[in-house]
Amino acid sequence: MKRVLLSASPMVDPDTYRRRLGEAVDQPVEIEVATLGSTERLIAAGDGVDVVVTDIDTPVTAEAIGALAPDLQGIVRSAVGVDNIDLAAAADAGVTVTRVPDYCTEEVAVHSVSLFLTCLRSVARYDDAVADGRWTWEDGRPVRRLSGSTVGLLSFGPIARRAAEQLSGFGAELIAHDPFVDADHMDAYGVEKVEFEALFDRGDHVAVYAPLTESTRGMVDADALGRLDDDAVVVNVGRGPVIDDEALLSALESDAIKAAGLDVLSTEPPADDPLVGREDTVITPHAAWYSEDAYDDLNRSAAADVTAVLTGAVPEGRVDPDGDGL
Q1: Given pLDDT bands bounded at 50, 70 and 90, which one contains residue 106?
Q2: What domains are defined for the chain?
Q3: What is the Cα–Cα distance from 70 to 47, expressed in whole angstroms?
């Protein structure tokens, strides 16, 4: 009998896995659901399992992988990012790691543009002012016209490309930095490829789509933010630690930038985060991925990867252990 451990996460729908595995695997599969969230819980719950479907809050460390080997065949990340998984340790143990890279491309792109427009047009600030009994356009100052401005995209993967398509209709110039995407590919989307410093020197606003890797951690620092004008909007739908929290807070407090729209934070959920509750920040709870359609796609795709691991096929979402890019 094969055993599959599912994280008791709201993003994981056990019924989808039961249906998919029951139809596609020609031997009994025992599906267990457990609250994970720590290496210790993963090791305790995962003893003897063939595949683990994990959430973002569970560190799948070398210690955990070593403890669950040699039974463990696959680690399926029920989302896009795999920064909580030790890919090198998994590769050394012969464990396949998968993710679902494209289930929420449309949702995150739309959400990033929504955050950007909300900050640019001072929508949240106006709403607060009206709720406090004020009715004056001055509460949103300064607001700059989007057309004719330059929007910089940090990373140019599928989500950033879709956002570029959406932003193109507003008449803004689009530039992007991604060392792993060539200029011709960006040009096909009407986007100019630039170096990292130029993204902030030329960008009136910057949207971050980068995943968290050793090369991206803290890359949006005080120097980068200091290159922006004081009416700039910074959006982050990638990973929280890509932006240096102290540098962002300092830029907001000193009015060096206008506002920040954040769907991701360095610590989630936040604990006494000074960025939360500010008039010049709009923060959503890592919800950019969500729509009912994306939820269904996520679970179907992750369940298909589990099926592939159990049947010896190559999973569609297999992760290259040597991959490290924007």
Answers
A1: very high
A2: 2-103+292-311 (3.40.50.720), 105-283 (3.40.50.720)
A3: 10
